[in-house]
Amino acid sequence: MRNSKIFLFICTTLFLAVFLTACGNSESTSGSSESTDDSAETEQSSEDAATDASQEGEGEVNIYTARHYEVDDKVYERFTDETGIKVNVVKGDAPELIERIKREGESSPADLFITVDGGVLAHAKQEDILQPIQSDAIEENVPELYRDEDNNWVGMSTRARVIVYAKDRVSPEELSTYEDLASEQWEDKLLIRSSTSLYNQSLLASLIELNGEEEVEAWAEGIVNNFARNPDGGDRDQAKAIAAGTGDVGIMNTYYVGLMANSENQEEVDVADQLGVFFPNQDTTGTHINISGIGLTKHSPNTENAIQLIEYITSADIQEFITSQNYEYPVNPDAEWPELLQSWGEFKPQEISWDALLEHNQKAIEISNKVGWQ
Ligand code: FE2
Q1: 164-204 confidence digits (pLDDT tens)
Q2: Domain span including residue 314
Q3: Is 73 in the same domain as 177?
Q4: Which are the contacts of 342, defined by CB distance < 8 A and separation ≥ 6?
């Protein structure tokens, strides 16, 4: 208690940037930051950071980001240490940040727009707030699959949305596809979060692209039928419910398993221990992946610094650093995976256009509402 008070005092007396980093670090050790950690939609925007970002000039780069991971702040800090270029960060939810960049127009201080979800990145491009990124280094760092076709944005990391299962009650031989999770075998045994999560909307959108609307509606009905309980909490909460025996199988992003397995919170480590990770649809359409990406804004005032930062983030070293901290998959094929990711093995991902996630988003929401997926 006393220690935490002293820590709080030190935190509050430090300069803002240091404050955010230091306290951010302590938050991760609590290991229970799902509500902020998992809702790219609800990150508060910091007025102080906004003021920072409005100070244009040499030696700076201004980021508007909807990502909510501590590792990002560490990367920016390392970049500043190595280059002397100051990184100013404004956090917010993606639609808000897109609107803000549009509203600010030519006078926007934003150089980079960073977010999670290929559909949102496609939306940012459609809203005409981005411009092509011209850099041979970036094109070398990031394969085409993980870049916008006009290089309006490039990937920063990818994530796989997989099936997790209770190792003591389910054998991986019983598992196969997302589609199969709607079968009677899993009645009252399935855990998955709300359909209001973009993670699930994009999973549905990808299946609409691959299987068509009708099939997906029937599938979603089966999924709801198989719910072990009404959707509650984020991805980590589904893992916890499986460990608690509420259900046997679930759908979640792999990096949460990684974060839990490496958490300072023993309870999370124990939960992760009980889970198996299964990559579905390996003999069919591949496992659903999504992408985090970086767009160069149309009126970026610090273009050179912005491109230098993207080159830095997509370099093999920093890609390795990000995956070692956050357990997302690197977009640079030269980056080595952490042991845990290696232990899960290589997998075949879905290969659909990122635009499809945007194109079918409304339909995904409609279907979820229709079948009563809360
Ligand atoms: Fe997340």
Answers
A1: 999 999 999 999 999 999 999 999 999 999 999 999 999 99
A2: 43-158+290-344
A3: no
A4: none
Say which CATH number the domain at 216 has.
3.40.190.10
Asked if the structure places residue 7 within a domain, the reply is no
Whole-angstrom Cα distance, residue 36 to residue 12? 21
- Residues linked to residue 65 through DSSP beta bridges, in sequence order: 91, 114
Structure-token pair, residue 42: 């609800």
- Which 8-state DSSP code applies to residue 369? H
Distance CA 258, CA 279 (A): 15
Region at 233 (left for phi over 0; alpha for psi -120 to 50; beta for the rest): left
Among residues 39, 57, 352, 88, which one has the least CA distance to residue 197? 39
Q: How far is the CA of 217 from the centre of ligand 1 (A)?
A: 25
Rounded CA separation 316/336 (Å): 8
Question: Quick one: 99 and 129 in the same domain?
Answer: yes
Q: pLDDT, tens digit, for every residue of 89-98?
A: 999 999 999 9
Q: Are residues 295 and 178 in the same domain?
A: no
Rounded to the nearest 10°, the torsion over CA 86, 309, 108, 100 is -110
Do 366 and 244 have their domain in common?
yes
Q: How many domains does the chain have?
A: 2
Question: Distance between terminal CA atoms of the chain?
Answer: 40
What's the predicted TM-score (pTM) here? 0.85
Q: What are 192's two structure tokens?
A: 């998955």
Alpha-carbon dihedral of residues 25, 296, 96, 16, nearest 10 degrees?
30
Closest CA to 138 of 335, 310, 338: 310
Predicted confidence (pLDDT) at residue 268 exceeds the cutoff of 60: yes
**Rounded to the nearest 5°, which phi and psi values hold at 130?**
-120, 170
Q: 142 C-alpha to center of ligand 1: Å?
A: 22
Ligand 1 center–CA 249 separation, angstroms: 19
Alpha carbon of 56 to ligand 1 centroid (Å): 31
CA of 255 to the centre of ligand 1 (A): 8
Beta-carbon contacts of 36 under 8 Å, excluding residues fewer than 6 positions away, are 42, 43, 68
